[in-house]
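pasting ABC transporter ATP-binding protein for the record, 306 residues
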Amino acid sequence: MTSSNGVVLDVQRLRMRYDESDVLHDVTFQAKRGEVLVMLGPNGTGKTTTIEILEGFRRRSAGQVGVLGTDPEHGDEQWRARIGVVLQSWRDHAKWRVRELLAHLGGYYRPYATAGVQRPWDTDQLIELVGLTDHADAKIATLSGGQRRRLDVAIGVVGRPELLFMDEPTAGFDPAARRDFHDLVHRLADLEDTTVLLTTHDLDEAEKLADRILILAGGRVIADGSPDELARSVAGESQVSWTVDGQRFVHTTTEATKYVHELFKQHGEGIGDLDVRRASLEDTYMTLVRRADAGEAVHTLAEVTR
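structre below
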């Protein structure tokens, strides 16, 4: 069962040690139902280890972990049927056809359907959902790289999961396929109430998808908040630019919303070309990781705003 306050992931002081090396240091975060949480961080910082622990594939060294109200080390088949995983690649038989494979895999979830969640997805609906209708009868060996990733996503959600893990899900996607994938993630979160935890190195993608962003560096959480909150916690200032009677003005302020409100009170419809710029997610990410690498004290958003 999910906790009464809607928490789907509850990670407290998670630690992971290999021999004499600590990979994760007191990692703590939560995710709620229907939330898209994007995990960022340099390679080797503990993202994959964290996700493998949450999926129940790796035993932690210390800390408390709750996934859909269950410790993943003790999750049974009923629990696992509520979770979806999109791997970086899926090893299968190239001679399978798309519809055949999804129908076959979906059959494993049928015993775990409930009154509230019908499992699995209808095969043709799922194929349409991921944009493979024109290739439903194609052999997997004939799919392009982007089509192959769409199939990987379909495999991950075939059981209609309440929680979905995705590791670099859009690797190999062209811009159109990436946009379709973003629409799919939003649909899963907004309409199916699916909680999504994904990793990516694409900061633009993270900004478009994330309700919250978690940044790991050196095995520690160095930031946790929405893209806007993280930008404000680092930059603090915004640049407001506008025109009046063809003349351009620029002003830097820590209270952009209040400043814009005053502008419109003063100039009304005379305001043109209004633009408010805060630090980009890339600026924020690079600043936080650089501080962590330099050994500077980096506070999570909760600590900054406490």
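The longest helix spans residues 175-190.
The chain has eleven helices and twelve strands.
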